[in-house]
Amino acid sequence: MAEIRLVDLNHQYDVGGAYALKDVNLTWDDGGAYALLGPSGCGKTTMLNIISGLVRPSEGAVMFNDVDVARTSTADRDIAQVFQFPVIYESMTVRENLEFPLRNRGISKRDASARAVEIAELLQIDHMMKRRAQQLTADAKQLVSLARALVRREVSAILFDEPLTVIDPQKKWELRQALKRVHAELNHTLVYVTHDQTEALTFADEVVVMNAGGVMQKGTPVDLFEQPANTFVGNFIGSPGMNFFSAKVENGVASLAGTKLLEVPSGTQANGDPSDVIGVRPEFVRWHSTPADQRVPVTVTKLNDVGTAVMATFTVDGATGMARLPISDRPETGPGWVSFSRLQLFRNGDSLDNCKPIGLAEGASRA
Amino acid sequence: MTQAVKPRDNRAWYLVAPVMVSIVFTAVIPLMMVINYSVQDIFGQSRLFVGADWFNKTLEDPAFRGSFLRNLAFSIQVLIIQIPLGIVLGLGLPKKGWRSSMALVLMAMPLLIPFNVVGTIWLVFARGDIGLGGYFLNNIVGLDINYAQDSFDAWTTVLVMDTWHWTPLVALLVYAGLRAIPDAYYQAATIDGASKFAIFRYVQLPRLRGVLTIAVLLRFMDSFMIFTEPFVLTGGGPGDTTNFLSISLAQLAQAFNLGPAAAYSLVYFFFIQLSCFIFFTILKRF
Amino acid sequence: MSKTFSFRRFGMSFYFILLMLPIYWMVSMSVQPNEDILGSFQWFPSNFTLDNYRTIFTDSSWYSGYINSIQYTLMNTVFSLTVALPAAYAFSRYSFAGDNQLFFWLLTNRMAPPAVFLLPMFTLFQSFGILDTTLAVALAHMLFNVPLSVWILEGFISGIPRSIDETAAIDGYSFPRFFIRVLIPLIKSGIGVAAFFCFMFSWVELLFARTLTAAEAKPIAVTMTRTVGASGVDWGLLTAAGSLTLIPGVIVIWFVRKHIATGFALGRV
After folding, report:
1. Is residue A27 left, alpha or beta, with left meaning phi > 0 and alpha meaning psi from -120 to 50?
2. With an 8 Å Cβ cutoff, are B225 and C104 in contact?
3. CATH topology for A4-232?
4. In this predicted structure, what is the pLDDT of residue A360?
5. Partner-chain residue, chosen from B113, B132, B135, that has the shortest CB–CB distance to C204
6. What is residue A32's DSSP assignment?
7. What domain range includes position C141?
8. Three-state SS at A312
9. For residue A210, which of A20, A361, A4, A3 has the smallest C-alpha distance?
10. What part of B 209-268 touches C (C-beta under 8 Å)?
């Protein structure tokens, strides 16, 4: 087990080609459960392969407990990996599959067998130990690959590359539970790559959001939701993503449609920037039939029942936004007002810290 | 494997009909004619029903037995040499870039040479006086190769020729099978600390099962039917050393010995179909 | 890593040299006069000449053999694919009475020794009056090329999701139109691979080609045997004719080189 630190990591697959990873600095604490989240092609898999040693980074260091292993071979790193689709040794039985990584490292048949049984019991696949791996169903196969990743005691980390892609939605939940149980029991460092935010947010203690080869934000699921560090994370996390409205900043005050909403902290550019936007999550929008301070005039154009809530589409200043409202608070289409219980100002795409919301209780927004 | 259940629809027979027509004319009718010949003694216009006589004669004929055993030995040697060699070559072929294209094209070349030209190439190449191979072995290595006179040399030359001709097929099949293995399998094996041999044994070999089945089947059957190449090279000689089943059958047929030739054909045909079926069943089980 | 790699490269280079030597030898003999071939042994041709090729290209009995070979090979490829396509589709998409048995039986035809069918086919084609035509050879070669094509194409069609068929049906495509406009473009590379194999097996086959032709439709490979005359073998002509038979093969492989790998791997066993 190990703490894993990525230092100034850069990677290009072809010399002179585009960067698959750029300027990545990240620390994975020992025993943590992490999710690596991002759209396809954002560099998640590259990062995973660099950690496991399947890819050698063009620049930078990969530190396992303060030892740089960037140029060490995969087998010497003590990493386990579970792939997108089940990778098993088809000609072997389940038991032989589980013993294989141990036997390759010179562990006696007896010890390997004992360990295989232990892990199989943990994942509840001990009843299929004698079966040929080839005959199993897709999700049983994936459980076997999972078990194979877990058999080695000394692994520094276990990497998961979208391991539930081929699994039925119902089985997905079961497998995720199995994974959590294993993590609670064995306390390995887990890194879980996915493009499915529900999967990431329910699995991990901390989530790393990536885009275009760079790390966008690392934080707990709640952080990502409530305090996205930039517009990308705001938009990527949540369904639908954050609303963005261009803001007018004058004399240290940001306003939307003439309504003053945020105080820009002193010391920053007081008179704004064309890139300034106010971001607010649909969950933090409230609708009102009457005007008041800090209520923004809007026109509600569409209502959509989604069972537990009403999704309202509204326009403000020519821009479109979404609100997720309780059913009890069903608005009417046409003119109305909205207030925001939590909002952020973004400049050049990044969150501007220490903005003070006007007329809201201290601490309700980003401190 | 994961194929969905196909809908049952007997109208699909309409789509198969053209194939059936072609097969009726190229296989069924000729086969029936062979059966018809095989139970008659045909001499000019006169025909006499002789029942199983020709079959008994064929099965007792020492020449047939000789050819049969010779052919069987040849096919077994072909498999023993060409399958492992093909696997090694398939593993060794470059995987990408111009080298790979080049290697594939060169490798496939012997497969696209008419059989008798293959025979001709080796007829020339293995000659001690004007052939590069024969000259090299006789005058530089110091052997005394003469495939036209010495039966061991004749047999070896035919075997080397067949290996030259057909090992590329095995290698290409293996290469294709290897390309179909996803990278993740190799990555997982590396992570599991598998040795090169273990990767071959547990990752590559199991996944080559399908193509190797085809390779063994094709190589066994085709070597069992070998005709043109040894016919051109040795004409079945010296003596009977390289007189394989097809060669002696063609001799019977050319003499218009219809009855014996037909019975000979059917025994031959039956054996091939039987071994094809056995191979298929055994290999499918693994 | 790099050590084993260079060993591998050495071994492969050695193999390729052995593979090419016999071919090199034939080609090099074809550009020498007969006196040189039979004279003292030489590694490289010293008196380069194209006389042997000139003879082949100016004598119609030589080059017509070449044309005949190409003719029946192409005819066979077209016939085989035409009948095999619908059948491959049927095997891939439907289950019907006797489908598995039929599929296996088709394959065993690929395994049937041509020598067995020689005599009856001769008699059969004689009664149709098509003996000694390229058509006869093209039809005879369907014996083994049709099963092979069905087999290869079935693999490729099975790789196309069934939902494509359903979408086309919903869009109002009739079956023939769907087949020609939608399915065939989708399995282009499969058709290419199947055509390659048909071409290959028809081009290299000699037993049928020789038996079913006498004078008119004689293939190049058979014409070659003429070089054995009273005065011995005309090595130069023989090897020149042989060298010429390599060309169509090389052209065809070059076109399908990217698909060879997939073509071999597909197909069900």
Report:
1. beta
2. no
3. Rossmann fold (3.40.50)
4. 62
5. B113
6. -
7. 59-265
8. strand
9. A20
10. 210-211, 213-214, 217, 221, 224-225, 227-228, 245-246, 249-250, 253, 258, 261-262, 265-266, 268
Q: Is residue C74 part of a domain?
A: yes
Say if A93 is an interface residue toward chain B (CB within 8 Å). Answer: no
| Helix-helix angle B53-60:B258-285, to 10 degrees | 70
What the block records as the tokens of A329 is 């608070």
Asked whether residue C114 is assigned to any structural domain, the reply reads: yes
Asked, for residue C255, whether it belongs to a domain, the answer is: yes
Q: Is B284 on the interface with A (CB under 8 A)?
A: no
Residue in the block written with tokens 């939701």: A225
- Which chain B residues are Cβ-neighbours of A87 within 8 angstroms? 182, 184-185, 187-188
* Contact status of B272 with chain C (Cβ, < 8 Å): yes
- By the 10 Å C-beta count (0-12 exposed, 13-18 middle, 19+ buried), A261 is classed as buried
Nearest to A15, CA basis, from A56, A43, A68: A56
Residue C18 in any domain: the answer is no
pLDDT at B137 > cutoff 50: yes
Establish if B1 touches chain A: CB-CB under 8 angstroms.
Answer: no
Q: Where in chain A is the domain with CATH 3.40.50.300?
A: 4-232
Question: What value does the mean pLDDT of chain A take?
Answer: 84
Q: Which amino acid is at C218?
A: K
Edge-to-edge order in the sheet of strand A356-357: A248-250, A253-256, A259-263, A356-357
Whether residues A100 and B184 touch (CB distance < 8 A) is answered with no
Q: Determine, for residues A83 and B198 on separate chains, whether the beta-carbon distance falls below 8 Å.
A: no
Q: How many angstroms away from the CA of A143 is the closest CA of chain B?
A: 15
Cβ pair C249:B113 closer than 8 A:
yes
Stated pTM of the model: 0.80
Domain boundaries, chain B: 18-285
Number of domain units in chain C: 1
Residues of B in contact with C148 (CB under 8 A): none
Residue B121 backbone phi and psi in degrees, to 5: -55, -45
User: For position C163, which CATH number holds?
Assistant: 1.10.3720.10
Residue-wise pLDDT tens for chain C (269 aa)? 444 567 888 889 899 999 999 999 889 888 888 777 777 777 787 778 888 888 888 888 788 888 888 999 999 999 999 999 999 999 888 888 877 778 878 877 777 777 778 888 888 888 888 888 889 999 999 988 998 899 888 888 888 888 888 888 888 888 888 888 888 888 888 888 888 889 988 988 888 888 888 777 778 777 777 666 556 678 888 888 888 888 888 888 888 777 766 666 654 43
Would you identify the CATH topology of the domain A242-357?
A: OB fold (Dihydrolipoamide Acetyltransferase, E2P) (2.40.50)
Q: Is B30 on the interface with C (CB under 8 A)?
A: yes
ipTM, two decimals: 0.83
To which residue do tokens 């082949």 refer?
C56
CATH of B18-285, one of 3.40.50.300, 1.10.3720.10, 3.20.20.80, 2.10.109.10: 1.10.3720.10
Q: Do C115 and B265 touch (CB under 8 A)?
A: yes
Residues with Cβ within 8 Å of residue A207, at least 6 apart in sequence: A34, A35, A36, A37, A200, A201, A218, A219, A220, A221, A224
Nearest CA in chain C to B245: C115
